[in-house]
Amino acid sequence: MPEPIDFYFDFSSPYGYLAAACIDEMAERHGRSVRWRPILLGAIFQETGGRPLLGIPMKGDYARHDLARSARLIGVPFALPESFPFMSVAACRAYYWMLNQDAGQAVALAKALYREAFGKGQDIDSPEAVARVCIAEGLDGDAIRAALRDPGIKQQLRTEVAAAIAKGVFGSPLIIVDGEVFWGHDRLDQVALWLERGGW
Amino acid sequence: MPEPIDFYFDFSSPYGYLAAACIDEMAERHGRSVRWRPILLGAIFQETGGRPLLGIPMKGDYARHDLARSARLIGVPFALPESFPFMSVAACRAYYWMLNQDAGQAVALAKALYREAFGKGQDIDSPEAVARVCIAEGLDGDAIRAALRDPGIKQQLRTEVAAAIAKGVFGSPLIIVDGEVFWGHDRLDQVALWLERGGW
User: Fold this and answer.
1) Rounded distance, CA A1 to CA A31, Å?
2) Active site (annotated) includes residue A12
3) pLDDT of residue A49
4) Residue A40 contacts by C-beta under 8 Å, 6 or more apart in sequence?
5) CB atoms within 10 A of CB A162
6) Of A57, A73, A168, the CB nearest to B200
7) What is the maximal distance between C-alpha atoms in chain A?
8) What CA–CA distances, in Å, run from A95 to A25, A28, A156, B102?
C-alpha cells in the first residue's frame, strides 16, 4: 500500500480551497489516499516574514482575478468572505476534534468549512460560525462548542502546526508526495505527473 | 491575424528562464507570435514591496528545489549564477538595442543571455559579461559596448519599465493574452488552455 499524500492548508487560504476541491480525486486516480492537515499560516509567516497575498499591491488584485478564473476552470463556485484574511483557529480545532473520532467525517467537515468560506463567501472565523457549519453537517452543537474550548484540542493544534513547520511547510496549499514538496494550487499538475511517473 | 502574446520577464528571474524555454513554441502551436519584454523587477518591487524569492526563509529553499525539478521536467539545463539575484540592466539594454534593429535577433539574444545565466550558471550582470554573450552571438563588440552606455537606450528601458508597471506587471514571468494576465511559470498550463479555448 503506497504512503498517503500529505495535504497542508490553511482554512483562510483561497488557493487551499481550490486544491481541496481536486486533491482527493487526483490521489484516488493513482491509488493514493490523502492526509488532510489544516495549519495556521499566521504562525508560519512569523518564521518566514510572509504576508497575506491579497493585501499586496498589484499582486493582490491579480490574485483575486486568478482565483475566480481558476475556480471557473475547475467548475467550483468562488466568493471571498467579508472578513478576509481571517483567523482559522476555530475551524482547525473543529477539524482535529473530528479527526480524533473519524478521519472521513473530518475531511467532509473540512470541505464543508471551505465551501462555506470560499464557495458561499460566508465568515467562518468565529467559534459560533464554525459550530453552525458543524451542526449543518449533522454534528452535535454542544459537543463541538465544548471541543473548541478544550485545552487538549488547543494543544493538539499547536503540536500539528509545530510539526508542520519542522517539516518545512511554509505556505498553503502545500502537498508532500513521497517526501517531495509541491507548493501552490498551480503545482497540482506536477503533483499529478509525479504520482503518474513516480518522479522524474 | 490574432494579437501577439506579451511576455514580460526579468533576466535575473529563474522562473522567467523556464518560461522563456517554452513560450515561443506554445504560442506557435496556436498561431500566435510573442512580444518579448524584459523588465527590471527591482523597480517594480519598490512599488509592491516584493522581495527576491530565493532570499525568503523556507520558501527560498523550496524554490531552489522546485526550479531544478521543473527544469528537469521540461528538459533544460539549470544552474544558478554565482551572483544571484543580480542586476539585469545591461542585459535589458542589450535586448532593446537589438530590438530596434531586428526583433528575431533580439529574441535569440535574450535566449542566449538566459542560457548563459541559468543554463550555464554564468554571471551576466556586468556590461562586459553581456558584451561577451553578444559577441558569441555574432554581434559587434564595439557597437554593443557603446549601446550599453547610450542615453537613448537607457531612456528606452526606463520607458518600457514604466509602461509595464502602468499595465499592472508586478512579477516575472508575466504573460498577457488578449488582455488576460497570467503570472508565474506554473500558470503556463492555463495560458495554453486559454489559447486553445479562447477563454472560459
Assistant:
1) 9
2) no
3) 67
4) A10, A88, A89, A92, A157, A161
5) 12
6) A73
7) 50
8) 20, 22, 11, 60
The answer to whether A195 and A35 are in contact (CB under 8 A) is: no
CATH topology of domain A5-197: Glutaredoxin (3.40.30)
E strand or H helix that includes residue A156: helix A151-166
Give the dihedral sign, CA B7/B11/B15/B20: positive
Other CB atoms within 10 A of residue B24 CB:
17
Nearest residue, CB atoms, A58 vs list B48, B66, B187: B48
CB contact under 8 A, B187 and A72: no
CA-based nearest distance A183→chain B, Å: 8
SS3 content of chain B, % helix, strand, coil (to 5): 60, 10, 30
What confidence score (pLDDT) does residue A48 get?
67
Residue in this structure with the C-alpha cell 543580480, named with its chain if needed = B86
CA separation, residue A27 to residues A3, A10, A23, A177, B190 (Å): 11, 20, 6, 10, 21
On the question of a cis peptide bond just before residue B85, with omega within 30 degrees of 0, the verdict is yes
Q: Side chain identity at B197, as an amino acid letter? A: R
**Rounded Cα gap, residues A62 and A164, in angstroms:** 28
CA angle A8, A11, A13 (to 5 degrees): 80
Do B1 and B81 touch, CB atoms closer than 8 A?
no
Per-residue pLDDT of chain B (200 residues; tens, 9 = 90+): 789 999 999 999 999 999 999 999 999 999 999 999 999 988 777 766 667 777 777 888 899 999 999 999 999 999 999 988 899 999 999 999 999 999 999 999 999 999 999 999 999 999 999 999 999 999 999 999 999 999 999 999 999 999 999 998 999 999 999 999 999 999 999 999 999 999 99
Identity of the amino acid at A1: M
> Residues in chain B whose beta carbon is closer than 8 A to a beta carbon of chain A?
47-50, 56-59, 61-62, 65-66, 69-70, 72-73, 168, 170-171, 180-184, 186-187, 189-190, 193, 200
Instruction: Please name the residue that has the C-alpha cell 507548493.
Output: A183
Residue A9, strand partner residues: A38
